[in-house]
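Workshop exercise sheet. Pairs work together: one partner reads the sequence aloud, the other fills in the structure field after running the prediction. Swap roles for the next sheet.
Pair: D.N. / O.F.
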Amino acid sequence: MGTFGTIMLIAVTAMFINNFVVVQFLGICPFLGVSKDIKSAVGMGVAVTFVMTITCLITYPIYTYILVPLELEYLEVIVFIFVIASLVQMIEAVIKKFSPTLYNAMGIYLPLITTNCAVLGVAELVIDVGTAEALGLASMGILNSVAYGFFGGIGFLIAIVIMSGLREKVKNLPISKHLKGFPVAMLTATFIAMAFYVFSMISL
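Structure field:
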């Protein structure tokens, strides 16, 4: 399989088959918290995509060329969280300066990207031998790792935008007061997860 074919396989896998939020259930907090309106959802999705992409670009070579040769693999989580926290701080400062409305809409969920399981999860997945083997690769390599991070972020963006669109529709429906708010949000997320489950049946 050529480079283009590998990238397409990674794209389909990361966005749909193994979608981080509705298949692997990583990053649920921002997914539920920032999906109340589409604008905030798009902003969060773009921010997470950027962080996931740059995280893979930085953490993969750090792990491969520094931690492994020095036999410091046990420090990977600490190092990865430090990289993620630094990126989030940078993004937070940029959004606050250029889009105060989006910054206020995201609220506490923006700095929570630092502890977003999806971001740390993609950093761990791209260094895992099992991920490379599932894609038919000996190892991920820097290009494939960055592609996995990018398309994983796009998958998060797709899921959170679908969720926000459905929540805006459901908000106007005459539903029981006992289901309003968090219960109906969880039901909505469940149906989205069921829809994405169909992609797991694809034979690649």
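Discussion prompt: DSSP finds nine helices and no strands in the chain. What would you look at next?
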